[in-house]
Design brief:
117 residues, mainly alpha, elongated, 6 helices, DUF5330, DUF5330 domain-containing protein
């Protein structure tokens, strides 16, 4: 889990790093990637993933257990959030109107014609 989180945050940080436009243009001039090459690379990656569990069955079993554990944690987290919101905003929640009658009286504003009272 640590590696996945680290990879995620590194990806976010790398995506937010500003890039010089001249460097981008120079990189594109050196090695442009065509759409066909990108599709071929994606298909090769997907087909390799399809055979991964055949080559490493124990890794896939552990991965499945991790995924089910994460699903249980997500359900528990959603339940906690639901229960919290239910207690904070449900029928038993405070109305938010805490002013007394003395609080509602207008404050003293001085004499109407500008004279001291």
């Amino acid at each position: 889990m640590f590696l996945i989180r680290t990879l995620f945050w590194l990806t976010v940080v790398i995506a937010l790093i500003p890039v010089n436009e001249q460097d981008v243009a120079a990189s594109a001039a050196i090695s442009p990637v065509e759409a066909g090459q990108a599709v071929y690379a994606a298909q090769a990656a997907v087909s390799d993933l399809g055979g991964f569990c055949e080559r490493n069955p124990s890794v896939c079993e552990i991965g499945g257990r991790i995924a089910s554990t994460m699903a249980l944690k997500a359900k528990a987290g959603a339940r906690y959030v639901y229960e919290y919101l239910e207690t904070e905003t449900g029928d038993g929640a405070a109305t938010g109107d805490t002013l007394t009658e003395a609080d509602r009286l207008p404050g003293w504003r001085g004499a109407a014609d500008g004279r001291e009272a």
